[in-house]
Amino acid sequence: MPFVHVYYPKSQGEEKELKKVSEEIHKSLITYFNIPAEDYFQLFSPYDLGQFYYHSNYLLEHKAKRTEKMILISITCAPGRTVQQKTGLYQAIVDAFNEHFNIPIENIFITLNETHRENWSFGQGKAQMISIKEER
After folding, report:
1. Cα separation of the two ends of the chain
2. Which of 2, 9, 36, 104 is labelled catalytic?
3. Any idea of the CA torsion for 95, 7, 81, 23, to the nearest 10 degrees?
4. In 3-state terms, what secondary structure has residue 8?
5. Secondary structure class of 96 (helix, strand, coil)
């Protein structure tokens, strides 16, 4: 039940590219978080250059530097995944962005926000996830 929100520079977002990025993120979630294929909810939000402020090399290795084309992927999901699942997901997403879109790995920033199942409603005013047990 992850909800994915991707913030990207306007100059980098052609529709066909965004669709491919979305598919790569979803494949990574299926592989590492064991979600069903139909559990697919993502939002892409472009930003103008100069609207994302950050330190160019905070916590990066080997004197690497971020560029003005930073991408933030914010994933909201239920708690319960292991550290290995989370780090595997991060690496798979970064590898896909680098391989398919030539985006430097320093420019991919990922946050994971865990929220309990009772805090989700998939419509109809119901908390559908309370009664569903998800495989991990």
Report:
1. 11
2. 2
3. -60
4. strand
5. helix
Identify whether 104 is a catalytic site residue. no
Cα(27)–Cα(21) distance, integer angstroms: 10
Q: Tell me how far apart the alpha carbons of residues 4 and 10 are, in angstroms, rounded to a whole number.
A: 18
Label residue 63 exposed, middle or buried (CB < 10 Å: 0-12, 13-18, 19+): exposed
Return the amino acid letter for 35.
I
Mean pLDDT of the chain: 88
Q: Quick one: tokens of 117? A: 């199942």
Whole-angstrom Cα distance, residue 86 to residue 33? 8
Distance, CA of 124 to CA of 82 (rounded, Å) = 31
Name the token pair of 23. 């598919």
Query: Does the pTM exceed 0.70?
Result: yes
In whole angstroms, what is the distance from residue 65 CA to residue 58 CA? 9
What digits encode the pLDDT tens for the residues 41-78? 999 999 998 888 888 988 888 888 998 889 999 999 99
Residue in the structure block whose two tokens are 């669709």: 19
CB 26 within 8 A of CB 63: no
Torsion sign across C-alpha atoms 76, 82, 88, 90? positive
